[in-house]
Amino acid sequence: MSTLPFGLVDFPPSGVMMVMRCEELACLEKSLGARLRAAGEEQGWWGASKMIVAVSGGGDSVAMGALLRRFWGGTQIWGHVDHGIREVSHRDSQFVESLARAWGIRCFVARRNVPCERLKGESIEMAARRVRHEFLEGLARSEGCGYVATAHSMDDQVETVMLNLTRGAGIWGLAGMPHRRGPWVRPVIAMRRSELRRYLQLLGVEWVEDETNQSRDYVRNRVRLDLIPWIEDNLNPAFSDRIFDLSVECLKNRLIITSRRGAILPWLRRPFYPARVTWDRKRAASLSPQDLAEALRGEGACLKLPSLDRVRIQELVRKIRDKGPFSCPWKVGWWVVGDRERIYFLKEPLAYHEVERVNLSELLNNPGSNVDVRWGPWLIRFDIPTTRTPDASFRGGSNLQLGYVPLDLSDPDVFIKPLDESSCPVPRPLRPLYPRVLSSAGEWYPGKGDAISVSMCAIIARVRLMPKG
């Protein structure tokens, strides 16, 4: 925590020193205020009437709140998440609530237990970011705000670029964090951490320090505390400024690539339930490696998936262009799976193994009724048709698959199992996600065809296969 209690200014008794301090504050405010406005105009939020501001209680976010309060004409609504990771995290939330009250700002605090809310494949940091983003985006919706501000500074950007370099980043990684992504904006992205803390010291405003920021157990902290200071001391004192300038240049190029990507993705997509996204593989393979890599990054962003490093993206590009079947994990339980015709973005589970037993006696006793069964991603509806229509051909996961299964009056049970029929038209990667309906008199699965005649059985049940809403 800073040495100055909130609301107090520790001016030395000397009148000369007081004047010097006031002049320093005025000069720093002028510079920071100009950069804040430039960020607001570039990112589009300067003219907004209100905005969600993510405040952790640290120096960067408190300084951002102070600068917005001083220079911006809109209304701040603070959002804070107590992640339940650190023993003293309640101290941070109490501080933020107290400061918001002192400044007359509405503040919403969410208290969560992130370690217990982690998803498969998530690190603690990833889970905390997901929980925080969900809360802040929900708060923005409920408050009718179009923007959510975070306090990433120039130092955060430089650290991000350096970390991306160690992972083999290309131009995408060298651009670092976008200054705006959807509703997320970064008002202090062009300000140094030291400037923001000095501004608070001159104001006499305190903040809280996260003690984990000094722990060298984390790679980012080692970059911040050791690597960058060494480079600035021994190679280039302006290293951070130069890296930030590089990120801005790469970001401009990335925006050009992103605009092109926006035209490519609709051209690739071919809906095929239950895959969340399906691409036409022939079209994907026809793209240049660079365009295909950017399309993969773009689809991952659309699905809100963690980004992949350049090596993983290049591996996916190679497998898609090789045209053979493949299956590659993304992250957090997502997979990219390909056959000769399509590429599927699938979320685990990639197969359903349960066998469902359904008794259709109700249909036999009440011909006008129906029986609904939820199996995997499907709603399966059984009824007894009064008239027969030709069996619908397989339409690749459209909103309705229609077929018929014969029933034995003495045995009205049917079983729903995962599809394993090798001759069916369902693409192989999706077969474990499709049902097969079996009775003692016959079976049906999507694409089986209409091979049932009335003379073969006494009763025929109609099967309608619909996506489970």
UniProtKB/TrEMBL annotation:
Gene Ontology biological-process entries: tRNA modification
Pfam family name, one: ATP_bind_3
Domain tRNA(Ile)-lysidine/2-thiocytidine synthase N-terminal span(s) in chain numbering: 50-224
MF terms (GO), sorted A to Z: ATP binding; tRNA(Ile)-lysidine synthase activity
Intracellular or extracellular location(s): Cytoplasm
Top enzyme category: ligase
Keywords, comma-separated and alphabetical: ATP-binding, Cytoplasm, Ligase, Nucleotide-binding, tRNA processing
Binding site for ATP: 56-61
Record-level GO cellular component terms: cytoplasm
Catalytic activity: cytidine(34) in tRNA(Ile2) + L-lysine + ATP = lysidine(34) in tRNA(Ile2) + AMP + diphosphate + H(+)
InterPro entries: Rossmann-like_a/b/a_fold (IPR014729), TilS/TtcA_N (IPR011063), tRNA_Ile_lys_synt (IPR012094), tRNA_Ile_lys_synt_N (IPR012795)
Main subcellular location of this protein, as a coarse class: cytoplasm
EC number(s) on file: 6.3.4.19
Claim: Cytoplasm is one of the keywords in the record: yes
Role noted for this protein: Ligates lysine onto the cytidine present at position 34 of the AUA codon-specific tRNA(Ile) that contains the anticodon CAU, in an ATP-dependent manner. Cytidine is converted to lysidine, thus changing the amino acid specificity of the tRNA from methionine to isoleucine.
Family: Belongs to the tRNA(Ile)-lysidine synthase family.
Domain notes: The N-terminal region contains the highly conserved SGGXDS motif, predicted to be a P-loop motif involved in ATP binding.
HAMAP family in alphabetical order: tRNA_Ile_lys_synt
Full protein name: tRNA(Ile)-lysidine synthase
Organism listed in the record: Thermanaerovibrio velox DSM 12556
Gene name for this UniProt entry: tilS
